[in-house]
Amino acid sequence: RQWWDRVRPAPKDPITSVSRAFLADASPNKINLGVGAYRDEEGKPVVLRCVKNAEAKVAGSEFLESISASANSRLVEESVKLVYGKDANVIGEGRLAGVQTLSGTGACRLFAEFQRRFYPRSKIYFPDPTWSNHHSIWKDAEVPQSTFSHYDPKSKGLNFPALVDDIKNAPDGSFFLLHPCAHNPTGVDPTEEEWREISYHLKVKNHFPFFDMAYQGFSSGDLDRDAQAIRTFLQDGHLIGCAQSFAKNMGLYGHRVGCLSLLCTDTEQAVAVKSQLQQIARAMYGSPPIRGVLLVSTILGDPDTKALWVEELRAMVNRICKIREALRESLEKLGSPLNWEHITNQVGMFCFSGITPQQTEQLQRKFHIYMTADGRISMAGVTMSNMDYLANAIHEVTK
Ligand code: PMP
Fold first, then answer.
1. What is the pLDDT of residues 137-180, one digit of tens each?
2. 212 catalytically annotated
3. Fewer CB within a 10 Å sphere, N or C end of the chain?
4. Ligand 1, residues at Cβ distance < 6 Å
């Protein structure tokens, strides 16, 4: 029998195929603006000093199996403080069911599975657009999905009235996936007032808010401010789900450290929910590797190392903000007839530039500049040294 004869290649992933094309390009001028990974002023990946400190502290301890359970619970304990606030009542009341996950993707996948088990017929609504993997994750979990309005191509900002209408029009008791800060791919976040209204309308409709927080700190440079949307929902009495990733804000990408937490009505419910999440995880992959967990729980658990992390996170965000200003200025100086204000209005790792698929193709072919076809620019890939070349290329293809 020819076992795998009928297997055809899977469709290409929009982000990894950009990286592959970039690697194959021999031009010395090439720029990768595809993958959302932080780069320093020289365009190099960064290992944060807080991570190096934590590595020194945990050296040699990763083989001690007895530490694994305590490191996991420490990770969850510290992670939920970042989301709900360090003094949040719900933490003391034992209302959170939290488990360590395989980064943000694993947290989403685990929740999708949980959702299907307990609400098999409820849909999940994603913002339009969203991180493309959201669609794949919930599809694989066989949860029906739909979208709600988010981005307005005309203003390159939020289409708030349409967003609210879509919340109102979804069947009562639907699941809504929300990016609490630094929306990927658009860089467009609701204001605090808009979040209050979103929270209100979700409550009226009995929808469940699921926050995918992959970039805490990257919107404002401040961890608490970036969690404000979730805190608003908390005040409004919602039950909440939250996926957290330490890939970007600690630069731990390949270590795959994350947390999934569900806010429950009381401790009894939290214990039940947690045991179900653990059972699903156990059958899928057991548990995530311990090394990254030790690093994150060490950073969050030690006040000095945590302070260093906060400082380094702010420095990453500051560099991206400066780069946003410089890119906008460069395009304006070149006399671009287009409005580029959205480069500085949008926040986080990405700029949803408005560059069309045809223009991104030209950027790649003529200038060796790589980005996803939707025109999303990973701002961390821009440096003061490639700025002029990039601005000029964008101007050439958009004028
Ligand atoms: N959610 C969103 C919105 C993301 O952009 C990402 C990273 N691209 C993730 C989740 C998951 O990332 P990771 O699994 O690397 O933590």
1. 999 999 999 999 999 999 999 999 999 999 999 999 999 999 99
2. yes
3. N
4. 36, 103-105, 131, 179, 184, 212, 214, 245, 247, 258
